[in-house]
Write a structure and sequence with these properties.
Layout (H helix, E strand, L loop, with lengths): L2 H11 L9 E4 L3 H10 L8 E4 L2 H9 L4 E2 L7 E6 L3 E2 L5 E2 L6 H8 L2 E9 L12 E5 L4 H10 L3 E4 L1 E2 L2 E2 L7 E6 L6 H9 L4 E4 L1 E2 L6 E6 L2 E6 L1
Parallel strand pairs: 1-2, 1-4, 2-3, 4-7, 7-15
Antiparallel strand pairs: 5-6, 6-14, 8-12, 8-13, 9-12, 10-11, 15-16
The structure holds D-4-phosphoerythronic acid.
D-4-phosphoerythronic acid (DER) binds next to helix 2 and helix 4.
Length: 223
């Protein structure tokens, strides 16, 4: 099975967590796109979605799925999203798609985070994937120095040669060389640095379930 087929497999499998008649929380990325495409098949059975990015909103609306503002809902039964890395406790690194801030906001509305990944995302310890951190531009250099003090090399994410600007109008640093053995403590520490909007460690908003696409089929992991 190709990686794309594994993503389609878990995107389809995630439908079983969608509660009929409700609004579903939807993440961002290529695996989530497979879920959105599968969700369209049952759009008459759901009320709609709360989206974590302009990209996902556009895809949902193009498929006729109503999109609600995050401020319009009290809570969601489930949030479906991908990850760049997931460890043995359901802690994740996210932000490869530059949507980490709104992803964490929508995840915080949900009772259950269901992570959909292909097996390449499984790691023992978070940090192999460059850690995305959304920052206020004027703080980028001082935050870079703080990561350097802990052995990380932060680089500004570029798009077409210019700093990438997120849906929230901020910049993203990608930090290499970290080994995040204590995700909860790491997320709490970095969150407090002035200028940090969101750090791409999802430990306080960890996954409850992971649907992992493997050559042997979909593995359901509960944390
Ligand atoms: O940016 C994100 O957080 C995405 O969810 C990312 O982590 C997964 O994207 P992919 O499914 O395209 O690998």
């Amino acid at each position: 099975l190709t990686q794309d087929e594994l993503k389609a497999l878990v995107g389809q499998a995630a439908l079983r967590y969608v509660v009929p008649g409700e609004i579903v929380g939807v993440g961002t990325g290529s695996t989530v796109n497979k879920f959105i495409d599968a969700l369209a098949a049952m759009k008459g059975q759901i009320k709609g979605a709360v989206s974590s990015s302009v990209a996902s909103t556009e895809r949902l609306q193009a498929l006729g799925i109503p999109v609600f503002d995050a401020n319009a809902v009290q809570s969601l039964s489930v949030y479906i999203d991908g990850a760049d890395e997931i460890d043995g406790q359901g802690f994740m690194v996210k932000g490869g798609g530059a949507a980490l801030t709104r992803e964490k906001i929508v995840a915080a509305l949900a009772q259950r985070f269901v992570c959909i990944v292909d097996e390449s995302k499984r790691v023992q310890t978070l940090g192999r994937f460059p850690l995305p951190v959304e920052v206020i531009p004027m703080a980028a250099q001082q935050i870079t120095r703080r990561f350097a003090a802990m052995g990380g090399q932060a680089t500004l994410r570029l798009k077409d040669g210019q700093p990438l600007v997120t849906d929230n109008g901020q910049h993203i640093l990608d930090v290499r060389g970290l080994s995040i053995a204590e995700p909860l403590a790491f997320e709490s520490e970095v969150n407090q640095w002035p200028g940090v909007v969101t750090v791409g460690v999802f430990a306080h908003q960890k996954a409850a379930v992971c649907l992992m696409g493997t050559a042997q089929g979909v593995q359901t992991i509960e944390y």
